[in-house]
Give the backbone structure.
Amino acid sequence: MRVISGEFKGRKLISPKGTDVRPTADRVKEAIFSMVWPDLPGAHCLDLFAGSGALGIEALSRGASRVVFCDASPSSLAALRQNLETCRIDGQRAVVIARSWRAAAAIMNEKCNLVFIDAPYNMWEHYSQILECLMDEGVLEEGALIVIERAARAGGYSLPAGFAKIREKRYGSVGVDLLVYTGRGQDDEKGENTLRGHV
């Protein structure tokens, strides 16, 4: 596993051992970042269920200004911290929250405009709850993009009010959804406007 592009291009990253962590394939990772590149420079990101931190580190490598990494697994946190050290990413650009997704959202005191959600595939039923939690805890800036990586054959999940799906792709057994947070009580017009910048 490696960083594909940008400041840390070619740096090798390690994956947690002895867990069910599923590293994002290079093809899927490249597809994800081709979707969000207009909003990446200077972005303030959240890497939820960070695992090795590969998505958040790739975002920093490509121009994001700061990433909050969240994971509760000790083995994932160990790999994540080693990968940050390998890339010499300091605490100004990366912060690690060693808590569950719900606890992390509750204590975050900063807003994000780009969120990566790569939860275990058996958690697809909880995606709506995760989105609602991020909204309720004030983690999302209005207009924030949310990337969900999931099993392509997973069951559907409902979008809470205030979110719109602007792209859905499949790469073999992996599905990727690109959402936009339009703000509580807003319609999908902002989602449609955002889509024009990601085609």
User: Anything to note?
Assistant: The two ends are 28 Å apart (CA to CA).
